[in-house]
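Readers of this paper often ask what the protein records in our data store actually look like. Nothing more is needed to write down the fold, since each code stands for a local backbone conformation. Below, we set out a record of this kind in full and without editing:
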Amino acid sequence: MRPTTVTERLAAVRFVVDEDEPHIVVHQELAKSTGTAERIIACCPAGVYWWAPDGTVAVEYAACLECGTCLAVAAPGALEWRYPRGGFGVQYREG
């Protein structure tokens, strides 16, 4: 039996989006001026962040693996990140 690929494993992850309280807020101007925007786009293993056509950093909450990598590379104050409230967020189905 062959091992599963990362793509196959990520396909098993489910995320329940909290429409009322997003768990990630990008402070656009500070993120751009500190280089945080480029770093979070480059480092996120799930591809949560990307450049929107209007030049802002877009966020796809439903892809977030809640690993905290973006928070680790962000300049202080450029990104608000917290775990989603109970019943929301990532649900791993494997290991």
Summary: The two ends are 18 Å apart (CA to CA). The first strand starts at residue 14 and ends at 16. The chain has a mean pLDDT of 87. Strands lie at 14-16, 24-26, 49-51, 57-59, 79-81, 89-91.
